[in-house]
Amino acid sequence: MLPLRSNRKARNMKFSWFVIWAGTLFFNPVTADCNSAAQTVTCEESGKNLSSISTKLFQNVTKLSLKNNNITLKDSEKEILQSLINLTELYINENLITILYNNSFYNLSKLLLLDISNNQISTVHKAAFARLNNLSVLNLSCNKISQLGSDVFMSLKSLTILNLQRNFLNSLSIKSSFKLTKIVLAGNPWTCSCDLLDLQTWLTASNVTMENESNTTCTFPATKEKFSIKMAPIKIADCKTAKSSSENPETSTSAIKLKSSALLTTLTPNNITENNGTHAELPLGKSWTFLAGVLGFVLGTTLLIFTAVKCPTWYHYVISYRHRRLQENNSEMFEQEFSADASSSPTASSTSNEDPIVIFEKIHKFVPEEDGYIEDKYIDS
After folding, report:
1. SS3 for 100?
2. Cis omega (within 30 of 0) on the bond before 368?
3. pLDDT in tens, 158-205
4. What is the separation, in whole angstroms, between the first and last Cα of the chain?
5. How far apart are the C-alpha atoms of 183 and 203, rounded to whole Å?
6. Is residue 359 exposed (0-12), middle (13-18) or buried (19+ Cβ within 10 Å)?
7. How high is the pLDDT of residue 196?
8. pTM, full prediction
């Protein structure tokens, strides 16, 4: 009986271990090449022609290599990375990343090393490295970065090594509080002008070591090609003047206004003195021609309005004048008709010379007085 019980116990132990192993595979279906040591879990996903980050990774992975793939770091890939909160080393070099958006590595607060070299990065947003408070090494070499804002590295309080070689940088502004032990800047087309003064001052004042300094030289202007960017002669006084004018546009504008007012003061004899100073009157110039044009336009418009208002009155005046002429013609015609009738009548010879005059006056008494209406002879009374 004892051997049977021992066999059953052995079978039960094997079955329980099998269940545990199957459960581990179910909840962590790992197809990546991962191996674990004492406190390190390393996953090697290099050179697999991956277009996205695998979701089948240990959640407790500490070192992840994704180099030599086709990863572009899309939003879905960023979410996968942000779930790997135990990462201390991340290698995404030799991929197809073009832009580092804000919060690309947001939850990776334990990350110590980040390698994003040999990509096609041209733009780095201001908060691309947010929450990477413990990051010590950042490699951005061999990309297409042409400009980096001074606030890009502000959240990297623990950064000691920065690699920016072989990009398209011609200037770089770094805050004085930014503390590094080593920086790599070779292989960039540096322009040794006032824009580079902040970097030059920081390199001189800090204890940072610029690696490969002999090859980190000016590209422009041609007179400074052989000078190291750390030792290139840049006139600080000229840069301060240019910087003050660019940072204070209101001051420069006020200076221009003061100069113009002074010039106007010399041109015009009359000035108006105020409490704040002297304000020069503007010269007349050719404004009188404009004023004359305005006055002509106003007078012309007034004349047109007056003509439009008075036109009906003039029209009625002309009509009434024609009306009176018609009445005069009618009276003359009546007189002619009357004289013709009087001469043809048989009694005209027997009457005296005064009779026609009397008869004419009597007949004229029946002519109606002018009442403003035109009388039509063809209408029966």
Report:
1. strand
2. no
3. 999 999 999 999 999 887 677 899 999 999 999 999 999 989 999 999
4. 158
5. 10
6. middle
7. 92
8. 0.58
Residue 15 pLDDT exceeds 90:
no
Look-up: residue for tokens 């039960």? 12
Amino acid at 218: C
C-alpha pair distances (Å), 344 with each of 179, 209, 329, 350: 140, 145, 23, 12
Q: Contact, 222 vs 252, CB < 8 A? A: no
270: left (phi over 0), alpha (psi -120 to 50) or beta: beta
- The CA-atom distances, in angstroms, between 120 and each of 9, 93, 99 are 60, 10, 8
Cα separation, 323 vs 159, in Å, equals 109
Q: Does residue 332 sit in helix, strand or coil?
A: helix
- Residue that wins the pLDDT comparison between 110 and 34: 110
What is d(CA 193, CA 177) in angstroms, rounded to the nearest whole number? 23
**pLDDT, position 71:** 96
**Mean of pLDDT over the chain:** 76
- Percentage of the chain surpassing pLDDT 90? 44
C-alpha–C-alpha distance, residues 12 and 6, integer Å: 10
Q: Given this model, what pLDDT does residue 372 score?
A: 56
Residue with tokens 């015009």: 268
